[in-house]
Amino acid sequence: MGVNDPLSRFPLKLTVEAEDVSHDWVREPDCFAVHGPVPPALTTAVLYSFDDPIINVCRGGVSTVSALPPDLTVTPVYRLRTKGPQGVPSGRVFIRFRTHVPVEERRQELETCGFFVDELLSYAPHAAWLLSKDGNIATALNGFAKLRALPDVLLVEPQMLIRRVKRSPDDSPSNPPK
User: Fold this and answer.
1) How far is CA 24 from CA 32, 72, 84, 139, in A?
2) What are the residue ranges in the chain where pLDDT is below 50?
3) pLDDT reported for residue 173
4) Which sign, positive or negative, has the C-alpha torsion 100, 119, 151, 22?
5) In this predicted model, what pLDDT tens digit does every residue of 74-115 receive, in sequence order?
6) What is the DSSP track for the chain?
7) Distance between CA 20 and CA 128 in Å, rounded?
8) Is the CB of residue 94 less than 8 Å from the CB of residue 156?
9) What pLDDT sits at residue 70?
10) Residue 51: which of 1, 94, 88 has the closest Cα?
11) What pLDDT was estimated at residue 168?
12) 9 Cα distance to chain centroid
């Protein structure tokens, strides 16, 4: 990755680990996401889009990304495991503490790690959605290790936007592959 690669600030791999969960998100080398409308020169590179928020997943490598205007928010696209779905990081990070540890009691530690609470969950006071204090998606993804190192943390996971794919009637759970 060259010096002009705006995606070099993002981790190559994100590992999510919990008591009963372990999976990796690995960066796709030939895709990137534009958060917001794409410049006209990129319209032919769009593979698919999200409407809310507006995010366009595009085909292209480092040279394509490096040529984009610097004020554009561009992130990598990750893939869950080897053949899993693609995901686009939103910048939000989910954290869950042990059941007896409310997030409210840990706000100061979260802020020391560079995060603030974006959304408390009324049904789960030990869990919350976080954002990095600077609002930068790369900062949020790179802050995983600090959050995981906090006492009583059970899970830290990025919010990944995944394209919805409709199943055909033959793929339904009641019709398993033969």
Assistant:
1) 18, 27, 10, 18
2) 1-2, 175-176, 178
3) 55
4) positive
5) 999 999 987 899 999 999 999 999 999 999 999 999 999 999
6) --TT-GGGGS-SEEEEE-SS-EEEEEEEEEEEEEESPPPGGGGGGEEEEETTTTEEEEE--HHHHHTS-TTSEEEEEEEETTTS-EEEEEEEEEEEE-TT--GGGGHHHHHHTTEEEEEE-TT-TTEEEEEETT--HHHHHHTHHHHHTSTTEEEEEEEEE----PPPGGGSTTS---
7) 19
8) yes
9) 84
10) 88
11) 63
12) 14
90-161 topology per CATH? Alpha-Beta Plaits (3.30.70)
For tokens 């990598």, name the residue: 76
43, two tokens: 């319209």
Domain ranges of the chain: 90-161
Instruction: Tell me the whole-structure pTM to 2 decimals.
Output: 0.86
**Model pLDDT, residue 2:** 45
